[in-house]
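Step 1: inspect the first sequence and its C-alpha cells.
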Amino acid sequence: MERTTKTPVSLSSLSPGDDCTVTGLQGVRRAARQRLLEMGIMQGVRVRFVRRAPLGDPIEIHLRGYRLMIRDTEACGISVTLDHPA
C-alpha cells in the first residue's frame, strides 16, 4: 500500500528515512505538548524519522539541525504528512 503525501499519519507509523512535515499535535497530554513545543516540534516543521530503538520505544527524529528521542506514545499524537523524496 503506497502512502500519499496529503494524508495525515502518526509520526510513530513512519519508517526510518521518511521525511515529513508536522501538521498538528492532537492526542498529546498538555504537559507533553508544552515540552514538545519547547523542543521545536510544531506545525510546519520538517522532521526526518531516523530510527526506532530495538524494543520499539523510543524513536529518534531529526529536526531543526538536531536529533531528538521521543516516546512512542508522544509520537502517536504528532500528525504529519509525508514529503516527496528528494
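Step 2: inspect the second sequence and its C-alpha cells, then contrast the two.
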Amino acid sequence: MAAGCLGLFILGIGSAAHHARPGLVSIELASAVLLGWALIRRQADPPAPVLPVDLFRRPIFALSTATAVCSFAAQGLALSHCHSTSRTFFIVRRSRRASS
C-alpha cells in the first residue's frame, strides 16, 4: 500500500510536469491520496505498525520530517534547473557554431 501510494504520487507529479491530460493526472493523484489515507487508517491500530503515525504528533519529529522533505524537493528542483540550463547553453552554443 505504501509503495502504491508513493508510486502513484510520483507518477501523478511526473504526468503533470509533462503536461498530460488533467483527468489522468487527477486520477493518479486522487488514487495516491486514497491509498495514503487507507494506509494511515490501517497503520493507526496495530501495536507495532510499519508506519508509526503517532510519531508525527511530536513537534520535533514532524518538523524534522518536513525539513527533510523540503530540502529533498529543493535539491531536485535545483538539479533539474541546472540540467535544463546547461542543456540550453549547449544547444545555443552548437547553433552559433553551425551558423558561423
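Step 3: confirm your contrast with the notes below.
Residues 57 and 76 are 28 Å apart (CA to CA). Residues 59-99 form the longest helix (41 residues).
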